[in-house]
Write a structure and sequence with these properties.
alpha+beta, 2 domains, four-stranded mixed beta sheet, 4 helices, 32% helix, Znf_MYND, zinc-finger, zinc, metal-binding
Length: 240
């Protein structure tokens, strides 16, 4: 079992719309932190019983052969996870990935900018100043109720460095947790859903489960989408 983190940032924020309703908010946590520490389960409010407090442990710029930087700075945050995800065995191939995907999408939305803006990061592949973090989480909860997340500083999304970041995180997870199943295939960029996906018709690299998710993500996606589209056209012209 891993040792309890020594540095834990008290950074619980309100849950995003990606989360199931009913989770304790930041205000609830602050007001009930002292009282709930020694409170018996059968005396807790019913709405609290479906959620479990955990630690989100984000390692940004992990050390790995062949990449730049790699100071492996660690960020720890308190958060909540649906109780029905506790203790789920993910070694099986018959796994419903939607709960983990939706949960991680919420984590990414809440903590991406917190970590990115904590200092100036360099892209781990080209060395340019990072404007984005590729974030990927371990699809299971550790024994001590810690959710492990890796964040790779990259210059921008949808470019060659982004694709290298995806491969880097997959490699790190498989090296560190060889017996744990990793979900294969794409998921919705917004909510983490894995069924009935459709590609962005312009860049053909991002997938969404619905028009609503695509519209929600477009203000963030549009600049990189156009850059990726130009890259694709340039590659095609070079092949002709």
């Amino acid at each position: 079992m891993d040792a309890f983190p020594r540095r834990v940032s008290h950074a619980v924020v309100d849950l995003t719309p990606n989360q199931p309703p009913g989770a304790p908010s930041n205000q609830m946590l602050v007001e009930n932190q002292a009282a709930s520490a020694g409170q018996e389960v059968n005396r807790m409010p019913a709405r609290f019983l479906s959620w479990v407090r955990i630690i989100i442990s984000i390692t940004c710029a992990p050390e790995h052969p062949g990449v730049n930087g790699g100071n492996g700075r660690e960020f720890n945050f308190f958060d909540y996870i649906p109780r029905d995800m506790i203790g789920r065995r993910l070694e099986s191939s018959n796994i419903r990935w939607e709960p983990a995907g939706r949960y991680f999408a919420g984590i990414r939305d809440r903590y991406h900018n917190v970590v990115l803006n904590s200092q100036v990061w360099d892209c781990q592949f080209c060395g340019e100043i990072s404007k984005h973090l590729y974030m990927s989480g371990m699809p299971r909860l550790m024994d001590m109720r810690k959710w492990l997340v890796y964040a790779i500083p990259i210059c921008r999304t949808l470019g060659p460095c982004d694709r290298k970041a995806v491969m880097l995180v997959d490699q790190i997870f498989r090296e560190r947790f060889p017996r744990v199943a990793i979900p294969d295939g794409p998921c919705c960029e917004v909510c983490g859903f894995i069924h009935k996906l459709k590609q962005c018709t312009r860049c053909k690299m991002i997938q969404y489960c619905s028009i609503e998710c695509q519209a929600h993500h477009w203000p963030i996606h549009k600049k990189d989408c156009r850059n990726a589209e130009r890259e694709i056209l340039g590659i095609r012209e070079g092949q002709n």
